[in-house]
Amino acid sequence: MNNPDHDRHDDPDAWQPVAPPAPRKGRGAVSNLQGRYEADRREVFDDGWQPSSDDPHDGAPALFTQVFEERAKTILTRNQSPDLPFNVSLNPYRGCEHGCIYCFARPTHSYLGLSPGLDFESRIYAKVNARELLVRELSKPSYEPEPIALGVNTDAWQPVERDLRITRGVIEVLAERQHPFAAITKSSLIERDLDLLVPMAQRRQFMAAITITTLDAGIARTLEPRAAAPARRLRTIRTLAEAGIPVGVSIAPVIPFVTEPDMERVLEACAEAGATSASYIVLRLPWEVAPLFQQWLAAHFPQRAGRVMNRVRDMRGGKDYDASFSQRMKGTGLWSDLLKQRFRQAVKRLGLNERQHGILDMSAFVGAKSAREKPQLDLF
Asked: What are the Basic and acidic residues biased-composition ranges (predicted)?
């Protein structure tokens, strides 16, 4: 009896297994995984022309970032999620060049008919009318002010912001209107805007959080390839803290056997740099993020990929992801409980989360009526 597998191996024209995608230098995703809303289905086929090299990056050509102008219809997004500490958010960009493989916002590129993979980090949509829309929103007589979370989905200080300055324009409006906001970022570019942020912090109208997943620069280089290096983010924490801005650290995500062993060291380094608060979120793999992350594991950590995913599923009831509000941030089970204990003990030992900076002062907000009167007063 013939062995089909043996026949395929001997016949050079027979079916060959498709090689795993090659990682690209400076990019997080290793493929342009098809988005779930695309009408046409794509199938990977190995035609035998895959280049071979000892350097895994040599097999993939350079991928340049494209920036598209978008005139958005709205700029403030509201949510009613009970596990989020904010109700209103503002994101000046869609897509993020930082390329963090774990980013929960990747699936939103599917709404554009694009891939949550390489498209998400190389095809960036800039909301060029963000400032105009924010002025319009804050000027509505019906507007009720509450703190805005800046850059929750995609980093407001990602590389394209250096030239476009859309985030800078948004902050100028918030500063003029004395409207409190909080920001989270992985970018040292936030230091550029200290002239606006420091006075707001002094009026209790601004606070910041810096995301640090690991202190291992090698892991960070593939995990979040175009974000600031871990050491540079620590320096940003120190800069913000010394300027009088309340700053915390977000360890997000905690990835079992990849970044998880570093958790205590990250907390220690951030506390030493001046952070006064800390939080963490375990790895989330919604929609297309799950296969993208597993491709990344296979490319960069093949020996521990199975172990990582088994632990993730232990925290998610046997699934890659559980989206329920009670479980999506911290997970469940023994490993989740142990992680929670480790975090609490480290935070207590380091004196983090002892001072409360969570209440921002809304009393000075310049609303519609005041904004109309202010130019008249400026004439005298």
From this structure: 1-12
Query: What b/e readout covers 84-120, taking b as 16+ CB neighbours within 10 angstroms?
Result: eebebbbbbbbbbbbbbbbbbbbbbbbebebbbbbbb
Number of helices and strands in the chain (H, E): 13, 10
Q: Say how far apart CA 159 and CA 246 lie, in whole Å.
A: 24
Spatial distance between the Cα atoms of 342 and 251, rounded to a whole number of angstroms: 13
Q: Which residues pair with 182 in a beta bridge?
A: 149, 207
Q: What is the DSSP letter of 145?
A: -
- Crossing angle for the helix pair 305-315 and 334-350, nearest 10 degrees? 90
Element (H, E) at 46: none
Three-class DSSP category at 141: coil
Closest CA to 45 of 20, 83, 18: 18
User: What are the residue boundaries of the structural domains of the chain, listed by start?
Assistant: 69-94+126-355
Q: Which residues pair with 183 in a beta bridge?
A: 150, 208
The CATH number given to 69-94+126-355 is 3.80.30.30
Asked if 178 and 203 count as a contact pair (C-beta separation under 8 A), the reply is: yes
CA 77/CA 88 separation, integer angstroms: 6
Range with the poorest average pLDDT among 39-48, 79-88, 162-171: 39-48
The DSSP-derived string for 63-83 is: ---EEEEE--S--EEE---TT
- 8 Å CB contact between 99 and 89: no
pLDDT in tens, 191-211: 999 999 999 999 999 999 999
Helix (H, G, I), strand (E, B) or coil at 359: coil
Q: What is the pLDDT of residues 342-362, one digit of tens each?
A: 999 999 999 999 876 668 999
Q: The whole model's pTM is what? A: 0.87
